[in-house]
Amino acid sequence: MLLAAVLAMSPALSLVAAPLQFRIAEGQIQNAFYQDGGTAAHLLLSSGVQPRILVAFPAGNSGTGVWFETTAKPVQWTLGKLQGQRRTIAGHAWNGIEADATVTADRLVVKDAVLSSIRVLRDYQLEQRYPAQVAATPQVSERSVRWQRQRLDGAPGYALELSTDNGRFAREGGHIVLRPDRAGAALHLRIAASTGEPPLTPLVDLLNAKAQPDTRSQDVLRFLSYRQKFLAGSWRFDTYFGRDTLMSLRLLMPVLQPEAIDAGIGSVLARLSPGGEVAHEEGIGEFAVLQHLKDGGKPSDAPIYDYTMIDGNYMLAPVAAAWLLDDARGRADARAFLAGHVDGQRRGDALVRNLLFVADHSMAFARQPVYSNLIALKPGSPVGQWRDSNEGIGRGRYPYDVNVVWVPAALRAIGRFLDAGLLDGYTTPAQRERLRAAVAGVNVWDAKAPGLFAVHRDAQQAAKQARDYAAQVGVGDAAALAALGGKPLEFPAISLDAQGHPVPVLHTDVGFQLLFGKPNAAVLDRVVGDVARPFPAGLMTPIGMLVANPAYADKEVWPRFGNQAYHGTVVWSWQQAVMAAGLERQLARSDLPAPTRALLGKAQAGLWQAICAAHAMRNSELWSWSYADGRYRIAPFGAEGAHEDESNAAQLWSTVYLALPPPAAESAACR
Asked: Of 127, 192, 288, 450, whose CB is crowded by the most CB atoms within 10 A?
């Protein structure tokens, strides 16, 4: 009674006391999440003809997994009780989970088990290979099989054990085979997995009273949020990603507690390069050990940061400005935030390094606005922004979003920081002059960069390409052709190629422009009209807004952007959220003519109808579709063998709808 009274008086204590547990089913994959103090784990069970068991740990971005050989008949997993597991081995704490499951299978043949960094498991999932030095030796008994190994540097490692009370493990022809004692009986399995990697500290007090009452999204966000960093997504991205952190913070900002926003921005500042670049992904735990050994060094777990991506470099300033200049809570504490320390440096000093990087890299185009002075992908890299698959921006070199949206947004943010005097204690007069000179070039970027990306199609060509593409991918074209209305088409290319030619793929990155810019009415009419048209003239389908449409490109480009491609004609949850937030922001303006406002309102209603129609997928990274009998149907990404990769069931930036209430007309459908 006394404990109950204490918990009732202190909701925070109640949250800490109760372990977080929730489950998400997508297609043939069951996902179970558990978090309790230093224990956090994601258990994944794959049914079908390619069964697997996988446990991912945010601690050290580590994991354990066992893959089985293809089965003659589909197997079906049923997950029972799941609980935390804490052990001490050789004086070190190991944290993990134990779970009860049943599986319907005549026999399961172990293909391989991998215990290491999630990045090693990720590569095995895609390529069926891993470094030889991380191989784990199974210990087999009649009722169990166990894999356990130390990390390569001798630190506590990883363990996975499968045990049964109604089956037998046996070695047969070099394989480990599991069979039920009685033919046709469902096998009972106990799954125990743990890691010795140092645990993270959960951010329990995350949301304020403005957050939407969506329990699943709140649970996902809580599982991915820690004092040290936010995780990009689980199971494949259980660690820091700079871009994901920044965009999630920007969209969630109205509903996050100040401590969470400070922690998120601080995690980005802590990982800046000496030159001010934003780290994309971090290599930690055994992945770092492997990389140091590969580079001829000692078996160190010192983090390795990836600075290949270029978009995050220009996101930091506008996101920091949204917190420290626009939000009353952040503005009140801005000077204290910048004076605080992270990774042995003042946050203000780290921020200025990034602002100077932005300023220096923007000057060439401001002086001479030609395509070759735009911000390009790094030499030798086929990726550099959020569409980070090899075909993401159509093999282009100059991304639309970086050059048309992010650079101008960053320059405007720098100007506002200077005007507020927040940089005075972290810059010399010469540095402030450098920053001011760069800010003066923002008008050139605004005036000249968009025109370089313009794609034009006359009415006849636009209709023919949309019709031909519809026939190629097997979807209806009547609504799409009607939406074109027999008029010429102009839209921004997804990128420019190495020669400065536009890559004519329609895309959702115009949503960034709506969220961070102030386009005039003519630009809004054009870009919103483009994406709001039904696919394949535009991007809208009844089950979501597609992130790309190659209909207006050459036919040889079409297969590279199919609905099996990671950044093809698929739906990304967070891109819809960016568009929804951008439309809301533009509708809040008072300087737009009535026809433009009507177009924005219509686009907003159509977008939310699609968002609500796929409400069950809201926390997923992305999803695909099929089309039959005149209807689109959702297909979980990764559920089909032809899909390029696999979607995360829990994605950080897919929780941002917690800060995006649907319009009143759509609210019932989104529950």
From this structure: 288
Q: Are residues 224 and 359 in the same domain?
A: yes
Could you identify the residue written with the tokens 């709808």?
Answer: 657
**Is residue 254 a part of any domain in this protein?**
yes
Mark whether 223 and 188 lie in a shared domain.
no
Q: What is the DSSP-derived secondary structure letter of residue 406?
A: I
Q: d(Cα 634, Cα 624) in Å, to the nearest integer?
A: 6
Contact yes or no for 116/134 (Cβ under 8 A): yes
**Concatenated DSSP letters for 4-45?**
HHHHHH-HHHHHHHSPEEEEEEETTEEEEEEEETTEEEEEEE
So what's the pLDDT on residue 639?
64
The region of weakest confidence among 17-26, 468-477, 530-539, 586-595 is 17-26
**Contact yes or no for 666/605 (Cβ under 8 A):** yes
When pLDDT is cut at 50, 70 and 90, the band that residue 581 belongs to is very high
Tell me, yes or no, whether 482 and 381 share the same domain.
Answer: no
Residue 604: closest CA among 585, 587, 589, 583: 583
User: Do 80 and 167 share a domain, yes or no?
Assistant: yes
**657 by DSSP, 3-state: which?**
helix
DSSP string, 61-115: GEEEEEEEPPPSS-BEEEEEEEEEEEEEETTEEEEEEEEEEEEE-S-EEEEEEEE
- Tell me how far CA of residue 20 lies from CA of 37, 202, 209, 212, in angstroms: 10, 11, 20, 19
The CA–CA distances, whole Å, from 534 to 150, 153, 483, 554 equal 54, 55, 7, 20
Report the SS3 class of residue 306: strand
What the block records as the tokens of 332 is 């009140």
Q: Residue 63 half-sphere exposure, CB side, CA atoms within 13 Å?
A: 28
> Residue 206 falls within a domain, yes or no?
no
- Residue-wise pLDDT for 380-439, tens only, equals 999 999 999 999 999 999 999 999 999 999 999 999 999 999 999 999 999 999 999 999
Residue 592 three-state SS = coil
52-105 pLDDT, tens digit each? 999 999 999 999 999 999 999 999 999 999 999 999 988 899 999 999 999 999
Helix orientation angle between 242-252 and 311-321, rounded to the nearest 10 degrees: 30
d(Cα 247, Cα 243) in Å, to the nearest integer?
A: 6
Give the count of beta carbons closer than 10 Å to the beta carbon of residue 242.
Answer: 28
| CB count in 10 Å sphere of residue 548 | 27
In a domain? residue 209 = no
Do 355 and 418 fall within a single domain? yes
Structural domain for 331, as ranges: 215-426
Question: Are 84 and 97 spatial neighbours (Cβ–Cβ below 8 Å)?
Answer: yes
* Cβ–Cβ < 8 Å for 373, 448: no
Query: What is the count of structural domains for the chain?
Result: 3
Spatial contact of 283 and 304, defined as CB atoms under 8 Å apart: yes
H or E stretch covering 483: helix 478-484
- pLDDT tens for 194-210 read 999 999 999 989 999 99
Q: Per the domain annotation, does 368 fall within a domain?
A: yes
With H, G, I as helix, E, B as strand and everything else as coil, classify residue 624: strand
46 vs 111: CA distance, rounded Å: 14
Distance CA 40, CA 38 (A): 7
